[in-house]
Specification:
The complex is a heterodimer of chains A (about 775) and B (about 260). Chain A is about 30% helix and about 20% strand. Chain A has about 775 residues and is of the alpha+beta class. Chain A has three domains: about 200 residues, Alpha-Beta Complex (Aldehyde Oxidoreductase, domain 3), CATH 3.90.1170; about 325 residues, Aldehyde oxidase/xanthine dehydrogenase, molybdopterin binding domain (Aldehyde Oxidoreductase, domain 4), CATH 3.30.365; about 150 residues, Aldehyde oxidase/xanthine dehydrogenase, molybdopterin binding domain (Aldehyde Oxidoreductase, domain 4, 2-Layer Sandwich). Chain B is of the alpha+beta class and about 260 residues long. The chains are: A alpha+beta (about 775), B alpha+beta (about 260).
Chain lengths: ~775, ~260
């Protein structure tokens, strides 16, 4: 029986009322009295040495407040990287400076060279055109394998080469891995590309910097997923400001998908320039700027090899990946191809020997960092494509091959550093087979063929590691931040509750789901609980939202804080009821004495906490508690997906006919929101698989620099989804038993789509074993006719 | 965008006069020009809007049954008003861009721009339309002169486009997945005196007639008539979305599908 409120209820998303009626408050809606506007002059070449920048003409243009170049930032730090990866020889990664405005060289199309602050944006643009640049163009470093060779042009002249790190995880003994492959009954090998993506949230990035001379205080309004992290990085590493003098506000944020995690140069610039100009400074990214300045995602080139024994058991796995980091290290870029990617290569399988090798490369492209899934989609894509190819080569059923190799005993220590606490991969696959009506596929294929179309079925399994933690372990792995979160539960005198959370909601529905938990624990109406987030002056120090961590980590802190509140409230209730605290029970918002009909309402207790006349002397007045929560382990959502496609054999056009997702997210707070998260994730995954492609030419010019050439998925590209979340193995180490659901769809869907296309082509007699994403009509046609 | 003067004349004569100013630029629905201006890729001194000239608006049926469409008529109006008169043209107009584009963009603006992937040039050339300007008539065969190039002189305005109605016609568009312009679009029209096949999206020279296909279909109006025909990929567009060879292949497929739709 579905619940109508509290944990497990599909409560309607309360925040959507303001989003859908134009009453949201986005950063671009914020205008500060007296603000000026900044326009960034960005490099139109990929690589060049700056010989001179003459801003004198620009400075004299109408409305110009001040023109900045890299020289103005020589006294401050650069953009920091939050994760130091150690390479396979024990050396730290190469970490080049990342200036706010270019110093010495430009390193990608879009690299900011100068910034003009003026009374109006048009005046700033006019003046930027009057800046005289002398830049000597250098060869662009674009191909990762070539960039790794000795003698390649260097992106950063002070580094020894273009390799940020050469990293390894799993089996370190090459000879042992070689031996496994030498003794294998079958080896399947696949070369593949995980295509570079642009996140393209509907709301482009915006920053408004404000400085109050009277109090020496700064405010930065910004489109961020984690305002406290931005404040910490900007104060401690970039501008050298005292944290308590800086407030960072991330109000309503129109989609992040990872790309708004990072601390960007424009944020530091607006904060710095607000003081330098003694005026608020606003920057609103155009869509064109977003394409060349928002961190991109993915961009791996991999070779994966799977060794099987004579009984089709997986006995070894080896990967060699080149990961593109772009021109500079974005905030968490170094962690994505390593600890968020290599650790996932075991997937759902008990492969005993795994070796992951990753060379992370500097190139003359926009920096690459986390994008929905962040490393986990890259791992899943490789693994699930090679498993599918192995099944085809061996002539065995792809589901049976997967089932045969599933991890079935938990906890399970993988050869790549993780411990899966729980899961039921066979059970989840059972749910998929039923929900997707796989038994009826043959009939559907026959019907498609009668219409002249090829029909394919693609299966995919995924494991995900969410709520990255605990802090002491990630610290040993190179993280320069903790990965806990925090919540303050503030009960008001009349019983309503404000919960200040470190997580940030930018589409995930926290404002609805989080109150469901608190209200359920106390037994009051959800409408009495409200979430406060996105303002460092209001919320405790939390790490924000990414990596499907909000409920598992911040939600756990919220539960802990609520438990503290209830514990204290019980003391007050015991006093009011003249009973022992141990006998007090809380149910449906009533405190009662066990075994009696004596009770007092939640609201009476909260009022007493703030009007403590009849009150226990040993208890402090007030009812407000904070908890920090550092998880003991990752959480491990897992799932099985099925995609059915039709391929038009004449044109290569692929259409998605059916898509079914069976996910195990552990316990679920709001099934409707979880469905929505999965739908969105699958949409982005299908976008990557069929449409999206961030492409550069050999000179480093961005070919897909607008929506005219970068294909975003539209509604009519996507099917209606079947989603089944009834397979539930609760997380064993957080109080809610939740695992996280934000990225699963984007992780699980690309291999399912590509596997389906390959299946369709083979069913039509085309012996195609791989097509790189996006599987565009042109590429399908070329593969069919090669 | 840069600053410019804005004129909104109500007669063709006034528009022509306003366009006589140095670096003046005609503005149709602005669906190409406005984004270009916003990118600061053009800097006209004066924009002359053609959207308030009554004599350039709407769809009329001439005595011979042909259609006269005002140059400033929006795609949405063409789609609505030609539905029962020239279904293939209505279908084409009704699938350009999105509703916002269709309610601003105009037939004259599209033809004058002659984007190599636009739909209307295929309709005009495939139908053997006549482009009527403020001072002359130009046949579609003479009008399109290569990518973004037409027979229009400086300051010349498309006032009306004249479409004869074929016995059967079909527009087959294969979408470029990002822009949803035509990766390849084929407009095929069958008249009593022969078949015309116009191809957009494919060629580096812009819209063109596929004369071999026309000859084959004039002999035998069946899909199979095209079976042995191949377009030379040499002059096709090759880009991120499709190679030259792929576009050449699609021309054949789309033409065949247009024939099938006409039978």
């Amino acid at each position: 029986m579905p619940k109508d409120s509290g944990i497990g209820a599909s409560s309607k998303r309360r925040e959507d009322v303001r989003f859908l009626t134009g009453a949201g408050n986005y950063t671009d809606d914020i205008n500060v009295h007296g603000q000026a506007y900044v326009h960034f002059l960005r490099s139109d070449i990929a690589h060049g040495r700056i010989k001179s920048i003459d801003t004198s003409a620009a400075e004299g243009m109408p409305g110009v407040v001040k023109v900045f170049t890299g020289k103005d930032f020589e006294g401050v730090g650069g953009m920091p990287c939050g994760w130091e990866v150690t390479d396979k020889h024990g050396a730290p990664m190469q970490e080049p400076p990342h200036p706010i405005l270019a110093q010495g060289k430009v390193r990608h199309v879009g690299d900011p060279i100068a910034a003009v602050v003026a009374d109006s944006l048009e005046q700033a643009r006019d003046a930027a055109e009057a800046i005289d640049l002398d830049i000597e163009e250098l060869p662009a470093v674009m191909n990762m394998k070539a960039a790794a060779q000795d003698g390649s042009t260097l992106v950063h002249d002070d580094l020894k080469n273009n390799i940020c790190y050469d990293w390894q995880l799993g089996e370190t003994d090459d000879a042992k891995v070689d031996e496994v492959f030498a003794n294998a009954a079958h080896v399947t090998t696949l070369d593949l590309v995980n295509n570079r993506l642009v996140a393209n949230p509907m709301e482009p990035r915006v920053a408004v910097g404000e400085y109050k001379r009277g109090t020496d205080e700064y405010t930065l309004f910004t489109t961020s997923q984690n305002p406290h992290v931005i404040r910490l990085l900007m104060c401690a590493f970039v501008l050298g400001l005292p944290e308590h003098k800086v407030r960072v506000v991330a109000p309503d944020v129109g989609g992040g998908f990872g790309t708004k995690i990072f601390h960007y140069a424009e944020e530091a610039f607006c904060t710095f320039a607000a003081k330098a100009c003694n005026r608020p400074v606003k920057w609103t990214s155009s869509r064109s700027e977003a394409f060349m300045s928002d961190a991109h995602g993915r961009d791996h080139v991999s070779k994966i090899e799977l060794a099987l024994d004579a009984d089709n058991n997986f006995i070894g796995l080896r990967t060699n990946t080149y990961a593109n980091l772009g021109a500079y290290l974005s905030t968490f870029s170094s962690s994505v191809p390593t600890w968020l990617h290599g650790t996932l290569m075991a997937g759902n399988y008990k492969t005993p020997v795994i070796q992951v090798n990753v060379k992370a490369m500097f190139t003359n492209t926009v920096p690459v960092d986390a994008y929905r899934g962040a490393g986990r989609p890259e791992a899943t894509y490789q693994l699930e494509r090679v498993v599918d190819k192995a099944a085809r080569e061996l002539g065995v059923d792809p589901i049976a091959l997967r089932r045969q190799n599933f991890v079935t005993q938990f906890p399970y220590d993988t050869p790549v550093a993780l411990t899966y606490d729980t899961g039921d991969y066979n059970g989840t696959m059972d749910k998929l087979e039923a929900a997707a009506d796989l038994a009826g596929f043959a009939a559907r294929r026959a019907k498609s063929e009668a219409n002249g179309k090829l029909r394919g079925l693609g299966i995919n399994c995924y494991i995900e590691a969410c709520g990255i933690a605990p802090s002491n372990i990630v610290g040993m792995l190179g993280a320069r931040a903790g990965l806990y979160d925090a919540a303050t539960v503030r009960v008001n005198a009349t019983g309503s509750i404000s919960v200040m959370v470190g997580a940030h909601s930018h589409g995930q529905g926290h404002e609805t789901a989080f109150p469901q938990v608190v209200a359920d624990m106390i037994g009051i109406d959800e409408s009495m609980v409200e979430i406060v987030h996105g303002d460092t002056s209001k919320i405790p120090f939390g790490m924000g939202t990414y990596g499907s961590r909000s409920l598992a980590v911040c939600g756990s802190a919220m539960v802990k804080a609520t438990e503290k509140v209830i514990e204290k409230a019980k003391k007050i209730a015991a006093h009011l009821l003249e009973a022992s605290e141990a006998d007090i029970e809380l149910k449906d918002g009533q405190f009662s004495v066990a075994g009696t009909d004596k009770s007092v309402a939640w609201g009476d207790v909260t009022l007493t906490a703030y009007v403590p006349h009849n009150y226990p002397l040993e208890v402090e007045p007030g009812l407000e508690e904070t908890a920090f929560y550092d998880p003991a382990n990752f959480t491990f959502p897992a799932g099985a997906y099925a995609c059915e496609v039709e391929v038009d054999p004449e044109t290569g056009q692929v259409t998605i006919e059916a898509f079914t997702a069976a996910d195990d997210f552990g316990n679920i707070i709001n099934p409707m929101i979880v469905d929505g998260q999965v739908h969105g994730g699958i949409g982005q995954g299908i976008g990557q698989a069929l449409l999206e492609n961030c492409a550069y030419d050999e000179n480093g010019q961005l070919l897909s620099a607008s929506f005219m050439d970068y294909a975003m998925p539209r509604a009519d590209d996507l099917p209606f989804y079947e989603v089944d979340h009834s397979s539930q193995t609760p997380c064993t180490h957080n109080p809610l038993g939740v695992k996280g659901c934000g990225e699963a769809g984007a992780i699980g869907s690309p291999p399912a789509v590509v596997n389906a296309v390959i299946d369709a082509l083979n069913s039509g007699g085309k012996a195609v074993d791989h097509i790189d994403m996006p599987v565009s009509p042109s590429r399908v046609w070329a593969a069919m006719n090669s | 965008m840069y600053s410019f003067e804005f004129e909104k004349p109500s007669t063709i004569a006034d528009a022509v006069a306003a366009l006589g100013a140095e670096d003046a630029q005609a503005l149709g629905g602005g669906q190409t020009l406005i984004p270009t201006l916003k990118q600061r890729l053009a800097a006209p001194t004066t924009l002359v809007s053609l959207s308030s000239i009554p004599e350039m608006q709407g769809v009329c049926v001439e005595d011979d049954g042909s259609l006269a469409i005002g140059g400033a008529t929006t795609h949405a109006t063409v789609a609505a008003e030609t539905a029962d008169k020239y279904a293939a043209l209505s279908d084409l107009a009704g699938h350009i861009g999105d509703p916002a584009v269709r309610n601003r963009g105009t037939i004259g603006g599209s033809l004058a721009n002659n984007d190599p992937a636009a739909c209307y040039p295929a309709a005009a050339l495939g139908s053997g339309a006549t482009i009527i300007t403020n001072n002359r008539s130009v046949s579609a065969d003479d009008f399109f002169q290569g990518m973004f190039t037409t027979a229009l002189d400086e300051g010349e305005i498309i006032t009306t486009v004249h479409f004869p109605i074929p016995q059967a016609a079909s527009y087959q568009k294969f979408l470029q997945p990002a822009s949803r312009f035509a990766l390849v679009g084929v407009f095929l029209a069958r008249f009593a005196d022969g078949v015309r096949v116009a191809v957009t999206g494919a060629s580096e020279d812009g819209v063109f007639r596929w004369s071999e296909a026309e000859e084959a279909l004039n002999k035998e109006f069946r899909p199979d008539a095209l079976m042995d025909l191949k377009i030379n990929p040499m002059n096709m567009i090759g880009d991120l979305h499709g190679s030259k060879e792929y576009r050449a292949h699609l021309v054949g497929v789309m033409t065949k599908r247009a024939v099938e739709a006409c039978i």
